[in-house]
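User: Teach me something about this protein's shape.
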Amino acid sequence: MIIFEESSRYPQAEQGSVATIGKFDGVHLGHQLILDQLKEVAKRLSLPSLVILIEPHPEEFFAKGSKNCPARLSTLKEKCELLESFGIDFVYLLKFNQETSELSADSYIKDILVDGLGVAAFVIGNDFRFGHKRAGNFKLLQRKGIEFGFEVIQTASYERNGYRISSTFVREQLSNGDFDLVEQLLGRPYSMKGEVEKGRQLGADLGFPTCNVNPARRRIPLHGVFACEVRVGDRYHKAAVNIGYRPTITEEGVAQLEAHILHFDENLYGKTIEVIFRQKIRGELKFDGIDALKKQLNKDVRLVREIFG
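Assistant: First, the predicted structure itself:
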């Protein structure tokens, strides 16, 4: 899969593309259905499949420095890895900034879709809005498709028990701690990946050394302590994982993921691990002091051992 950041640098511009657009946060089953449609049309037209990936999310851009935006299910790197695993040929990273937010709907279509990406078919939901003040819609795309000679194909929606699968619905189920349902919605267990960083060593001082990972998102979708599996290379280990803002030991308000891997003493600094969430133990708490924190950590780890048998 080839990733590029300027529509003018699409390497198959003369050949054209079959494209779709979105944030693809979580790359859930609803997204996967769209990707299947995209690949089917691309195969029919003998053209490359292309995902226009909006980064950052518009809600994050308009929230500026605050955390007043939806929690992110996937980082950009995680999204791209998933899109590649589903056989997408190209990803165009559409940088959402002030200039993009002021781009007219007509310019969106002419400059990006037609002149930049040579779109022969555009797979999109009928509720999609785009351009300055969200002036562009499905009907405008249909009219412009006739004018410029590209197909506009409506995406199918994926429902489960009467609920439309969306990133918002996945976030709600994560918040509820229903990891079995989340796995069904994603087609895989929910996980976070990241490089292990050197922390303050407080966990080691308390007798619970941890692998520290920056969740790398404005808002995290999970808070608390969880029974997890940690994948290191092709090996899986049981772990007690805390993700949140560590209110007992810091006032910085920076999210951190800390994984205490059971029966493990290897140095993982600089290595990428995947943390797979299996069951919630408790919510994030602020303790009166380090002794109270240590006492609770003992309880957490003991419970994780029991969960995994």
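Now, about its shape. The mean pLDDT is 90. The longest helix spans residues 290-307. If you'd like, I can walk through any region in more detail.
User: That's plenty for now, thanks!
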